[in-house]
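User: My instructor asked us to take a sequence, write out its structure as tokens, and then describe one feature of it. I'm not sure where to start. Here is the sequence I was given:
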Amino acid sequence: MPQRPVHTSSRLSEVRYEIRGTLSHRARDLEAEGRQIVRLNIGNPGAFGFETPVHIREAVTRSLPKSEAYCQQQGLLAARQTIAYQQVTRGSTTATADRVFIGNGVSELIDLSLRALLEPGDEVLVPAPDYPLWTAATILNGGRAVHYPCPADRGHLPDAAEIDALVTPRTRAIVLINPNNPTGANYPRALLEAIVAVAARHRLVLMADEIYDGILYDEARFQPLAALAGDLPCISFGGLSKVHRACGYRVGWFTVSGSEARVHDMLRAFDLLAALRLCGNVPGQWAIQPALEGPDTIRELTAPGGRLYESRRAVLDAVARSEFLDVVAPSGALYAFLGIAPNRLPQIDDEAFALHLLETEDVLIVPGSSFNVAYRNRFRITLLPDAAMIADVFARIERALARLAESAIPSRHVA
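Assistant: Let's start with the prediction itself. The structure tokens for your sequence are:
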């Protein structure tokens, strides 16, 4: 009898995560052949020599003997109190430890929160470009992601009126990623206030992905959404992976703000789902208090002369010299979302270019269309390599683009 493959969920056919997808698998094959691939696809500080601050690491080490049992499903009380206090100091009037949920990274908590909120067919307003987990988690939990545009000619900022026009009776939530992944945009207070007004008018939940809250350049300032939301239900996500360079600890959290009447049932749903997975990683939770109460270790990296600042400057300098590239200077986060000039390569296809660059120059990037946009002339890189490596990478990118510009073969068909 012929063997048939096991049937998998049809929802997966709509889900993409190219950050670790086909191109990454191909990079792994090339590495197995002995090639040295520069992996610019993931914002993974430890892979580029960044270290978790010593005081955070030592706190986890000291606490290992206390980490061998499950903790309460929402997380360690002292850690939750520290997170709630941070929210209060940022202007939230309703944050308490009972409204904090700690999980295995923000990724787990995005899925958990959407599972609690969505009925089949419910809609979630998500930025385009987005961090694709938001779209994927919406789909996998039976919802429909409706994307609002954040185009380059607007500095990758959304427009509150455009968001408002997308609201339907099935809309449940508005997702904001600030500072933004993949574009590096940092949202000004007036824009956030306008989006809060949309949520208030339609009784929507606000979901603020603020994992890059401390990674800002030049004069950019971070505006927490919960401080503006007041009594509106607002779920604010944060964690240790980026600002504190502790990706492998897998520690994230969200804090629920808003009036008790509006969030009571939501909190009960979150508690049930948190209990079903028992608890988050206990050893990593001991890092939260020293991280949030200890010295600021990110500012020296993002200030002029700091490694992240100089890597960002190397990107901007390389784009200024390029015959083919443009970029909106990132104000925050760990990425640049680069465009390929349509007048130079009008038929460019981002996936084909990414594969060509990988095969010919040993550089792995993420095609822009992976972030749920229709255009196909952008790609994302991380700013984590040092400035010298950034300069070398852009020399390779420029060579690859020059080959395509000179080739008689349409770039859509380059392998």
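For the description part of your assignment, you could build on this observation: The chain has two domains: 10-51+300-413, 54-293. Try explaining in your own words what that tells you about the chain.
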